[in-house]
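Render DNA ligase (ATP) in 3D.
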Amino acid sequence: MDLPVMPPLAPMLAKPVAEIPPGMLYEAKWDGFRAIVFRDGPELELGSRSGRPLTRYFPELVQALAEQLPPRCVLDGEIVIVRGGRLDFDALLERIHPAASRVRHLAEVTPASFVAFDLLALGDRSLLETGQRTRREELTRALAKARDPVFTAPATYDLALARRWFEHFEGAGLDGVVAKPPGLPYRPGERVMAKVKHERTADCVVAGLRPHKTGPVVGSLLLGLHDRAGRLQHVGVCAAFSMPRRRELMAELEPLRMPSAEGHPWQDWADPEAQAAGRLPGGPSRWTGKKDLSWIPLRPERVCEVAYDHMQGDRFRHTAQFRRWRPDREPEQCTYEQLQEPVRYDLKEVLGGG
C-alpha cells in the first residue's frame, strides 16, 4: 500500500459542548465503530480508532468498499449495523469474533454499513491540510454513485436544521450532533470539533464499586435498576471523579461494604450461566480481554442521581456521570420505568437526508 496518507492514523475527535455552536458544518453523531478506510487498488484496510485493525471482521464491507470507492483514497467514517430502522450497537459488538466461520455467518445475518463523513486523501493528494468545507465537497463527488451499504453522512450548514436533527435523530439510535468549523484542516488525534449529546438523569442503586488502578480509592460506582420482576439489574457505572472525591467516596461507602458477595443481588456474577441470564457486573468481553473486572459488593441501600446520554438495550451506553446522592429515594423506587424513551425515527430517513 502506497498512499499519501498511510495507516495507522488516529481520527480527528470532538470535545463536548453544552449547545450546538453557530457557523459550523453539522452532522449526526453516529453510534458505531469509528473506522478509517485506506484503499490502494486491490488493497483495502479498515483501521479502528484505537489502531486495532477491523478488516477481518467485516468481509462484506471490504467487498462493497472495494467495488464503490475511488481506486486510491482514504476515508473517515463509521461502521454501523441497522436493525428495525435503528442503529444496533449490540449487534455490532457481536461482529468482533475470533472464529472465521462465525465472522462469515454474522456478515450474512447482520451485515454492516459504512457511513463516510470525511475524505483524507484522493489519488496522489493528501487532503489533511485542506479545509473541512472543501473536503466535504470532494467527499460528496467521490461517493456520488455510492449505494447501500456505503453512504455519505448527511450534513448541513443550517443551524435550525441541525437542532431538529438533534431532537429527532435520537429515535434512530444516533448520539447527538457533531459541529465542524468549515475551514478546519484534518487534525489526527486532536479534539478540535464539537459534539452535543443528549443528557438525561436517573436515580440508581449503588450496589458495588471498583477500586481505582492507583490504589484503595473509588474508581467507579456500579449502578443498578430494578426490572419488572423486582430483580436488581446492573446497568452501568459512573466514574470521572477527582482524586480527593475518590478518597471521600471510599470512606463514605465503607459502612456498606460486604465481606463477600454472598447474599448480594449480584452474588452469581462469576457464573457464566448467570451472566447469560441477567445483567451482572464483571461479565467477560472480547474488548476487555484479561482486564480485572472484579468488584467490591456494597449493601444496595444508597441511591444516587446520575446523568446519562442514552440506553443500549437495558443498560447505559456510556459511563454515567454522578450528580448527587438521593437520601429521599428508596432503592426499590429505582426502576426502568423512570427512563425516557425517544420517539422512534427510521434510520432510512436519516441516510436519505433527514
